[in-house]
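Researcher: Quick test of sequence recovery. Tokens follow.
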């Protein structure tokens, strides 16, 4: 959603007029953020489709918004393609089952399509994990994805991905796409978002105690992040014993860690903190919050923390709004994660992999916060320009141009 939203102001500048087809919010149970509409240009056509009622469809195992809306997308877009000319269909969503319609529309209407891989679709990552570490309904989703991914990918005319490894894996898995246009394009920085968050920050419920030294992470949790979090928690536990007067003021917040409905999420970070004696220093809020509430909370923090997944392919899209705030940033990733190079490109020195971070690194980072409240960091202007949403939109459009001339219809 954010990829398209932050690209809409720039598509026409690079030769493309976009229309959006999305599910009406009446049919979703996700956190709503009407402020997102403020960044969408007024001239953009937005088409809304229905979805089956979740209470009823969940009884059949079809609770996801992608599966509930699939036939409505098919019917609505059939009418659009029958009555109007479109050069390309662009799937930019993590609700991947919708992408299977690309092959159908391509065959029926001769319109090419591009898929944006913001996450892996079919993956064996959780196959060897204990059941309590697997996503909800993993048995069903694994088998569904194993069937749906090839149906969508084999006929695609272009692939965009946030991680180069996603493209490599797909081309290895499906030789049919080895020659189609593909590009690694991360999400972009979108400065207007910060202005919107500042303008409306009084409307959001405060989550932090501003008398503390607050280090904040907003995003999903999961045991796959424990390798990145453990060395930081270990250092904090050690520092707490060495200097309790200072470090008792340090609080780590993990906000919006569960995809479960509000009030039903299970903590995935707090158990790790408790095992290291950090119950009083770590606050986990499982309920998701809106995007601009997230930004406002990040701006209230003294510093930000980004723990990466132990999956080497993982690229944290959230790093760009984090960087927008120019807050002091501590990040820990898998040694092979592309996020490390990206952050270093911006001039962030406090980014580590979980094999080279030390207690001293964490201690120095936290002590700096105590001596310089509201510490701001400077970023490489060259990197900022390279990673602006406008620049990323241009790259998308360049791939679109290749895809429509790919002769795979």
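Model:
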């Amino acid at each position: 959603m954010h990829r398209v939203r932050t690209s809409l102001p720039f598509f026409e500048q690079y030769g493309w007029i976009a229309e959006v087809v999305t599910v009406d919010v009446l049919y979703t149970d996700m956190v709503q953020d009407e402020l997102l509409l403020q960044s969408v240009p007024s001239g953009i056509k937005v088409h809304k489709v229905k979805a089956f009622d979740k209470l009823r469809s969940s009884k059949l195992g079809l609770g996801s918004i992608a599966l509930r809306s699939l036939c409505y997308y098919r019917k609505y877009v059939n009418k659009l393609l029958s009555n109007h000319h479109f050069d390309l269909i662009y799937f930019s969503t993590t609700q991947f089952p919708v992408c299977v319609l690309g092959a159908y529309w391509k065959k029926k209407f001769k319109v090419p399509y591009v898929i944006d891989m913001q996450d892996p679709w079919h993956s064996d990552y959780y196959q060897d994990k204990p059941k309590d570490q697997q996503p909800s309904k993993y048995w069903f989703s694994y088998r569904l994805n194993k069937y749906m991914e090839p149906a969508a990918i084999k006929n695609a005319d272009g692939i965009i991905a946030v991680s180069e490894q996603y493209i490599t894996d797909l081309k290895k898995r499906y030789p049919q796409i080895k020659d189609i246009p593909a590009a690694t394009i991360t999400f972009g920085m979108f400065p207007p978002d910060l202005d919107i968050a500042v303008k409306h920050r009084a409307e959001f419920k405060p989550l932090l105690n501003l008398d503390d030294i607050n280090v904040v992470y907003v995003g999903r949790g999961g045991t796959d992040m424990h390798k990145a979090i453990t060395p930081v928690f270990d250092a904090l536990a050690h520092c707490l014993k060495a200097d309790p007067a200072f470090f008792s003021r340090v609080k780590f917040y993990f906000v919006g860690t569960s995809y479960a409905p509000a009030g039903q999420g299970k903590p995935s970070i707090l158990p790790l903190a408790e095992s290291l004696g950090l119950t009083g220093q770590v606050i986990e809020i499982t309920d998701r919050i809106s995007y601009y509430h997230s930004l406002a909370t990040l701006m209230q923090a003294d510093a930000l923390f980004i723990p990466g997944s132990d999956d080497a392919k993982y690229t944290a899209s959230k790093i760009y709004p984090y960087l927008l705030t120019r807050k002091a940033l501590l990040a820990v990733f898998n040694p092979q994660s592309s996020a490390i190079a990206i952050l270093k490109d911006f001039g962030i020195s406090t980014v580590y992999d979980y094999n080279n971070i030390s207690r001293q690194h964490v201690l120095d980072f936290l002590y700096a916060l105590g001596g310089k409240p509201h510490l701001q960091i400077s970023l490489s202007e060259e990197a900022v320009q390279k990673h602006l949403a406008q620049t990323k939109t241009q790259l998308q459009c360049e791939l679109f141009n290749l895809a429509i001339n790919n002769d795979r219809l």
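The first strand starts at residue 19 and ends at 23.
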